[in-house]
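ARCHIVE CARD
Drawer: 12
Card no.: 0347
Subject: one protein chain, sequence and derived structure
Cross-reference: see card 0346
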Amino acid sequence: MGAIDHNKNPDLKYSYKVGIFGCLMSGLTQNYFDPFLLSLGGNASHIGTLNSLTNLAASVAQLPSDKLTRQFRSRIIVTAAFVFLQAIILFLLAWIAISGVPTLPLTIAAITCFTACGAVLQPCWI
């Protein structure tokens, strides 16, 4: 098998670059939500609730993804909107960490929304 020539297909080159940033964002956020919750004073019950809700929300959030793509007639618009929502949620989580106020239910809700937004993106992107 030969090497892929990115110059012949610029979309492939763009997709590759965007994929790198998507993997970075996922690797730098999703893997650290449990320790983040523990650092805010969460316990095993909070971690269990977080993992249950994020898995449920991710599964349910993928269902309307096709309808959203058809309604907006663009995967780019749907992707940009939900990436923007994820960025806002990350700023909220940073504010929670900086403020020092342990708001575990708000943190769990924000992380669940972050995960749901990412789940909406996956079918659109693929």
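Annotation on reverse: The longest helix spans residues 75-99. Residues 25 and 57 are 19 Å apart (CA to CA).
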